[in-house]
Amino acid sequence: MFERFTRDARATVKGAVVRAESAAADAVTEEHLLLALLDQEGGRASFALAALGLRDRRASLDAAFTEARRRGGLTRADTDALAGLGIDVGAIVSRVEGAHGEGALATGRGGRRWWWSGHRPFTPGAKAVLENALRVALGRGDRFIGGEHLLLALAAKPGVVADVLTEHGATYGAVRRAMYGPEADEGRAQAG
Q: Which residue has the higher pLDDT, 65 or 150?
């Protein structure tokens, strides 16, 4: 499948691996893919990220990802659902961190199972994003997978990355409109 990636999509995947290595993460995650997309210059995804103001709010994105890792990777929807059951995730995180240190529930660090192969694996979620990027590309009639397809796949996949994007005004629809213009919605309305 990697042969179907454009230059910017390949650079994004390679950048995600570098980000995972520099963060000493066990695996490459969806978060690493998004942060690597933010590093790319040129292309539709880069334009959309700039148009949505995400390039200027990298510190805010990092803070949101740090907070999600502190919650053990729970999404806002997970946290809200647990709150509906009377479970205060914030209180639990505080108690665990009080007993075991700050970041005790943080995901993605640990046993370094990848050391023997020399390659960090991709999490199932990151693999799903890559596979969905192919589906997005094919659905748009594109033969190759570009950064824009990766960004749309990240925005569409339920989880922490989509939550953080939504919190920053980058819903799937907003990303699609930023890349393809308002006609992206018109074409969809006519088709449906």
A: 150
Which helix (H) or strand (E) element contains residue 143? none
State residue 102's pLDDT score: 67
Give the CB-side neighbour count of residue 74, counting CA atoms within 13 A.
17
Q: Which residues pair with 122 in a beta bridge?
A: 28
Better pLDDT: 190 or 74 = 74
Identity of the residue numbered 1: M
| CA gap 163, 131 in Å, rounded | 20
Q: Which pLDDT tens digit goes with each residue over 122-144?
A: 999 999 999 999 999 999 999 99
* Contacts (Cβ under 8 Å, ≥6 apart) of 187: none
Tokens representing residue 96 in the block: 């665990």
2-108+122-191: CATH topology is: Double Clp-N motif (1.10.1780)
Structure tokens at 15: 């950048």
Q: Where are the domains of the chain?
A: 2-108+122-191
**What burial class does residue 135 get, using C-beta atoms within 10 Å of its C-beta: 0-12 exposed, 13-18 middle, 19+ buried?**
middle
Confidence of residue 109 (pLDDT cuts 50, 70, 90): very low
Distance in angstroms (rounded) separating the CA atoms of residues 24 and 110: 9
Residue with tokens 């690597």: 36
Tokens of 149: 């397809």
